[in-house]
Amino acid sequence: MGQFEVKVDGIRQNEFLQANHWLAARSYLIILGLIVVMMISVVVTIGTAQVKNLWVFLVALVAVPLFYDFSFRRTYKKGPFADMKMDYNIDALGWRVQIGEQNAMVAWANTSRVRKTADDLLLYTYKGKGQSTSNLIPRRLLTEEQIAAIISWQREAKQKIKQKAKDDANQ
Question: Are 88 and 5 in contact (CB under 8 A)?
């Protein structure tokens, strides 16, 4: 497969939620983990006879995921996502995205990973110090052949980087 173009005429709510879920899930999982640790420490400290007093933690265990979902739905409604227009040009060298007057060009070597969700293809780029940012392409706009090409191009670039690092280390 050679070069192809993808025109995004708006991001649907389910696409936005899936993409952003992966960006913030770590923070919310840490909060849930802390709540569970606090529950366990209370049980160990005061004994199992006082388990009935853990209702606050149980409410928090339910409330945190609900708040998480509510906050992303609210963000989607407030943003321009439904009307967002993006043009992607993708080939074996990398991908280019244009959003309004802004352009970005990213080589596959600078694409840290490609993540395929039920509704999205997320292209992560290095941001520095282990952080990355993602670009969303709705899967409804891609063929399975195009998805396979994107994943293959990114993996090939990663393999070349690893091989070059090995060659440099051996010299």
Answer: yes
Q: What are phi and psi of 33, to 5 degrees?
A: -60, -40
Task: Give residue-wise pLDDT tens across range 125-160.
Answer: 876 666 567 788 999 999 999 999 999 999 999 898
Q: Is 23 helix (H, G, I), strand (E, B) or coil?
A: helix
| pTM of the predicted protein model | 0.70
Instruction: State the pLDDT at residue 50.
Output: 63
Contacts of residue 111, Cβ cutoff 8 Å, sequence gap at least 6: 94, 95, 123, 124, 125, 154, 157
Asked if residue 165 lies in contact with residue 120, where contact means CB atoms within 8 angstroms, the answer is no
Distance between CA atoms of 23 and 137, rounded to whole angstroms? 15
d(C-alpha 19, C-alpha 113), whole Å: 14
Beta bridge partners of 128: 131
